[in-house]
Amino acid sequence: MKIKNIMFDLGGVIMTIDQPSAVKRFKEIGLEDAERRLDPYTQSGIFGDLEEGKITAEEFIRELSRLCHRRLTFDECKYAWRGYTKEVPLRNIKVLDKLKSMGYRLILISNTNPFMMSWGMSDGFSGDGRNIADFFDSLYMSFKMKMMKPNRKMFEEIISKESILPEETLFVDDGPANIEMGKNLGFKTFCPQNGEDWTKELLDALEALNAR
């Protein structure tokens, strides 16, 4: 069965993650134990509550301000979260354009939050004036869906809303637990390493899958 849809993760795939930079920035704004509180794949505590939509951006600012012992602003929190973003490589932008021109339906599934998406939905995302929505047919963000990968229900809701078949869909994610859930649901999967050039390998994988 040929691949018709490609479901992409954001951080660690489209965007290169820089965990040490995020830790450094959160420390800069006053979070002394940032290493303990931050995770490269799935957040917990108030960070997880934010990405799971359990608390709003305003509530997160209030809670983080309490931990930092001073009143923080939205822009300070955005600055700290943006530490996770090392770059959005041009090669990734080009391959998204190529895949769309080849007729694939592109879907984003991301554990993310309002601070990161205030950047992602801006014209500063790609470096050429486009925002993240310009590259995908549909966007599924954890804080809006109120659930995070690898929650099975998140995948099932996307399957239902998009009317897609997992066996016709390639799921691309750098998180092993997320990939395992994708496999369990019948998705074809591809698990690149954060920061590597996965573009040729992905195109080769699609060619091989479609040749079966």
TrEMBL record:
Alphabetical list of NCBIfam families matching this protein: HAD-SF-IA-v3
PANTHER family reported for this sequence: ALPHA-D-GLUCOSE 1-PHOSPHATE PHOSPHATASE, FLAVIN MONONUCLEOTIDE HYDROLASE 1, CHLOROPLATIC
Protein name: Haloacid dehalogenase
Species for this entry: Prevotella pectinovora
